[in-house]
Amino acid sequence: MSGENLKRTPLYECHQQLGGKIVPFAGWELPVQYSGVIQEHQAVRQKAGIFDVSHMGEVFVVGAEAEKAIDAMTCNNVATLSDGKAQYSAIVNPRGGIVDDIIVYRYSPRRYLICVNASNADKDFAWFCEHNKFDCEFRNKSSEFGQIALQGPLATKILSSVPGLTDIASLPYFHFQDRKAFGCDVIVARTGYTGEDGFEIFIPSAQTPKVWTELLAVGSPLGLVPAGLGARDSLRLEACLPLHGHELSDDLSAYESGLGWIVKLNKGDFIGRDALVKEKEAGSQRGLVGFLVDDPGIARHGDKIFDAKGMEIGWVTSGTKTPTVNKALGLAIVTSPFTKDGSTFFVEVRGKRLAAHVVKRPFYKRALS
Predict the structure, then answer these.
(1) pLDDT tens-digit profile of 268-289?
(2) For residue 141, which of 97, 205, 304, 307 sits 20 to 30 Å off, Cα-Cα?
(3) What phi-psi label fits residue 174: left (phi over 0), alpha (psi between -120 and 50 degrees) or beta?
């Protein structure tokens, strides 16, 4: 996509003023870093970081059969949600592949918000509309919202200092509320993509710069820093949170991608259920693993994986050396004999095969206070 066709979030000028290095990402111009990926990553693990996630999409589902519609198009069980609760789920195609991973927020049985990935927002909305045979309406409101993620062990302390949000510590994980703060109506969700505690705040687009600036003003004395795509990726990789186009795709089934835990086959029919039932009965031929590289070198997305006899058995979906774990690590799709912890294989990096072994996921898990 050429530069003139890239979209900009409401925070584009804020990023420029802060010295953010802007790069193309999923059709948008977004900061990859400010002070540096390692510093930003460590700030989120130790104190707090603030991310522009305004490129994410927001689709509202409204109507008498909103719950039925979402249940028919996603693999998790929406009926288990209560008002004010969120659910991680996925849109699955008839082959069992992942169209997108999403978060579903329930206001009531007749009203939901679905947050979708940036690169898939238009595709997901078209999918919803195409498969909507129910008494409800899907409304793409993505252009009306900005979104900011405040993540890290001090995120609650920082957000609690904002008038209107002083009691936000009581909001449970994966719950959300409509609030009045920063002089506008916002949606505050206790969710995130870093492996840390934190919040994602949905904001009217025009008000997003004001919220960003105010959060930095109250949080900077406590160590809050703006963080970019680089830190977001290394943080989510340590926590083994999947990224569409890497661990998730239309050609990888929910079971192969490691999302079997959100597949609820007993809830009733949904798109992709038949394929997933067959796969569960037969067993998956491949699966997602976490691995550490034993030889000097770093594995990257797309690197091929071989067994000891030189047979190709998979590929790296994500890989780097991350700041907290401080080891070369990655996620990979490999054939089923190599999915067990302790399995060994070789990753081909620039023509050289590096020894690696499978470890239990995630690589990093925060200590619960």
Answers:
(1) 999 999 999 999 999 999 999 9
(2) 97
(3) left
Q: What DSSP letter does each residue of 136-196 carry, written as one string?
A: -EEEE-GGGEEEEEEESTTHHHHHHTSTT-TTGGGSPTTBEEEEEETTEEEEEES--SSSS
Domains of the chain: 3-49+143-238 (3.30.1360.120), 285-359 (2.40.30.110)
Choose among 185, 205, 181, 194: nearest CA to 56.
Answer: 205
pLDDT at 91 over 50: yes
Q: Which of 194, 336, 246 has the alpha carbon at shortest distance from 358?
A: 336
* DSSP-derived 3-state class of residue 241: coil
Task: Return the structure tokens found at 300.
Answer: 């990257």
Q: Are 204 and 193 in contact (CB under 8 A)?
A: no
CA dihedral 231, 258, 124, 178 (to 10 degrees): -60
**pLDDT tens column, 232-243:** 999 999 999 999
Q: In degrees to the nearest 10, what's the CA dihedral of 168, 49, 32, 100?
A: -40
Residue whose tokens read 């603030």: 50
User: How confident is the model over 39-59, as pLDDT tens digits?
Assistant: 999 999 999 999 999 999 999
